[in-house]
Amino acid sequence: MHRLMLLRHAKAERVKPGKSDCERCLTKRGRANARAVATYMISYRLVPDQALVSTATRAQETWMLLAKAFAEGPKVVSDERIYNATAEKLIQVISETKGALCLLVVGHNPSLHDLAVQLMAGGNAEAREMISEKFPTAGLIVIDLPIDDWSQLQPHPHAGSLERFVSPRLIAKVSRP
User: Fold this and answer.
1) How far is it, in rounded angstroms, from Cα 136 to Cα 112?
2) What would the mean pLDDT of 71-78 be, rounded to a whole number?
3) Model pTM?
4) 3.10.20.30, 3.90.230.10, 3.40.50.300, 3.40.50.1240: which CATH number matches 2-8+25-175?
């Protein structure tokens, strides 16, 4: 069994004149949301063995805020193919991973959303419905997959079980008294 965690980058600013979409930075709210997700991940022992991170600034910043929370940082691979990828391209990138049982991908929509919907077969029906409607910024999807190696990940639908879905909004609801 392997675990795939998909994290959409946190809230980013709009494209500024003279800058590219790839250079968008996190907003103040985005940084706070990334820290909230990092705290949640540590609290629930959702620590990856390896992270694949888009080279876009907003994804890199999201990762850096998460990485600060991990006592021992997982191996990190920045991969430009994650930016503007399709779900099929993400599968190709993920399938090249070696030696990690738990893999985190920090990237973008619509590819992360499409991949999650494609892979989920079971798990919490309400959470699956929420995901099918929207994958918000700083949202985290955890899918358990019945594979022995990442090279076995195929672009066939419904291979995994949704273990959990959280977002900054859901985390805030749970932590309110």
Assistant:
1) 11
2) 88
3) 0.94
4) 3.40.50.1240
